[in-house]
Amino acid sequence: MPEPVETTTPEGVDYGWVMQTTFVVTILVGAPIVALASTAVDLPTWGARAEFAVRVGAVVWLLTALSVFAYAKRNQDQDQR
User: Fold this and answer.
1) Nearest-CA neighbor of 54 among 76, 73, 66, 38?
2) pLDDT higher than 70, residue 4
3) How far apart are CA 57 and CA 67, in angstroms?
4) How far apart are CA 21 and CA 28, in angstroms?
5) DSSP state, 73?
6) CA–CA gap between residue 42 and residue 66 (Å, rounded)
7) What is the full DSSP assignment across 9-66?
8) Where are the domains of the chain?
9) Given a cut of 70, is residue 8 above it in pLDDT?
10) Between 15-38 and 46-79, two packed helices, what is the crossing angle to 10 degrees?
11) Alpha-carbon distance 16 to 28, whole Å?
12) Which of 21, 33, 38, 70 is deepest in the core (most CB within 10 A)?
């Protein structure tokens, strides 16, 4: 049986959880937001649609990532008490 390569006991924010949660929440929340926002804008070509989705999606991703990190940080502080 091979020995484990590496084990960790993370202290602080679990960044893996933050990244995974950000990914899932961004897809679940971001796709409907982009779809609804695109109804108010004239997007005549596929290039314009892709550019719009990337721009709006980036904002959604950033806000989601900051929110998830703040949530994880707040819960980390409560767990240490």
Assistant:
1) 38
2) yes
3) 15
4) 11
5) H
6) 30
7) ---S--HHHHHHHHHHHHHHHHHHHHHHHHTTS---SHHHHHHHHHHHHHHHHHHHHH
8) 15-79
9) no
10) 140
11) 19
12) 21
